[in-house]
Amino acid sequence: MLFEDALKTLIRIIRPRNYLIDQTDFRLHCMYTSMLLLLFFTIITTKQIAGDPIDCDHNSYAVKQTVLNNYCYIQTTYTITNAFDKKLGSEIPHPGVFINSDRYDENHHIYYQWVWFILFFQAFCFYCPRWLWKGWENGKIKYLVEDFNEFLNEENKNNKKKLIVNHMVENRENNDNYAEKYLICLILAFCNVLGQMYFINFFLNGEFYTYGFDVIKFIYTDPNLRSDPMVKV
To answer: Would the CA dihedral through 6, 47, 196, 213 be positive or negative?
Structure first.
């Protein structure tokens, strides 16, 4: 039911409109990006679709699987930093796992516990500029084109167009404040994108900035020597 309600809300957001109050890039930032983030948030918080967040392997049946999974989920997962450059199968059993030495550098991963919250927070940040702009715009465009498509007579349509054009020309010098507010929203959207890049890099322990280059390097490296950057993250 939660997924169906969220899907209906998303469809209502993207439905076609007779008028637009912003540009395409602004809508991509505020509406469609927020919609995708909310969709991902809904998916990972719905067990019927994504299943359990973690599944721990164990050899003892003294503890119930659900109890063990909850314990594993709230604990910090860590990998060994220098265990990604060793030979798989002979030196290490798995990338990031190394148990033959008492001296190693642990890299703790806690992001998977907070992914659902981060997705919701990101969706909120992406939508904020549009929420602010809708408050400042206050339905002006809707008022200008209201009932425009209901005129059946072509002459009436042309008269309505002339009224709108005349209104814009007569008030040309009175719309500076209107444009400045929209510009502020565009700047906020741009700053949000930069802030999101920094935030995601911090959230993933500094692995986001170099991830694309690491993937390209991974593709062109000898299969016996390379380490998958996704496994590291």
So the answer is: negative
* Phi, psi dihedrals of residue 87, rounded to the nearest 5°: -75, 125
| Cα 124 to Cα 37: distance, rounded to the nearest angstrom | 9
- Whether the model pTM is above 0.85: no
Sign of CA dihedral 125, 129, 130, 131: positive
Segment 153-179, tens digit of pLDDT: 666 767 777 777 777 777 777 777 888
* Crossing angle for the helix pair 176-203 and 115-137, to the nearest 10 degrees: 180
Give CA–CA dist 199/118, Å, rounded.
10
- Say what angle helices 2-14 and 33-44 make with each other, to 10 degrees: 170
Given the structure tokens 């076609």, which residue do they identify? 16
Alpha-carbon span 228 to 214, nearest angstrom:
8
Q: Tens of pLDDT along 40-80? A: 888 888 765 566 677 777 776 777 888 888 888 788 778 88
